Amino acid sequence: MKKLLLSIAILLVTAGLAAPSAMARTVRGGAMSHRPSVEMLGPGHGPRVGKPMPPVGGRPVAMHYGMRFASRPAGVVVNFGGVSFIYNNGVYYSSIGREFEVVRPRVGMIVPSLPMGHSVMIRNGAKHYIHNGIIYSPMHRNGTVVFRIVGFI
Asked: Is the pTM of this model over 0.70?
């Protein structure tokens, strides 16, 4: 039932993509063409998936931008634009003094794996992945598949 509700929510959010965005525009001869259809394939369709974040105090924690933690969260360091971020299963942290704050990632950041529970979206014949409103595009780097953030829903 939860998966069905998630799929419906994703479809509703995707339907909101009908408004032109930088990612959705296709230019031909200087004019914007109609946007192609978007196909959602559901969660779990993707090459590499990150490990789920461990629960805190035995309960899963819903992360929100602005949340701060006194100790360094687990994850990999992603450097982008001269700033170091920590990435863990779709959550991005930035160091603020001695604390770590949950932050919105930046377009162009590259992460080594997809978050658990992502969905697949086909646009213009290319596969993109969506998780928590972040759109990822797969790319090859040094013989492995990594994922670049290309936009937000």
From this structure: no
